[in-house]
Amino acid sequence: MKAAVVYSSKTGFTRKYAHWIAEDLSLEAYDLKYDLNEVKNLKEVLSGIDTLIFGGGLYAIGINGLKKVMDEDQVDGIPNVFVFCTGLSLRSEEVQREIFENNLKDVEKKNVKLYYYRGGFDFRKLSFIDRLLMRLMKLKIDMKKKKRPLTSDEKGMLAVFHRQVDFTDRELIRDLVQEVQSL
Ligand SMILES: Cc1cc2nc3c(=O)[nH]c(=O)nc-3n(C[C@H](O)[C@H](O)[C@H](O)COP(=O)(O)O)c2cc1C
Question: Is the whole model's pTM more than 0.85, yes or no?
Answer without folding.
Answer: yes
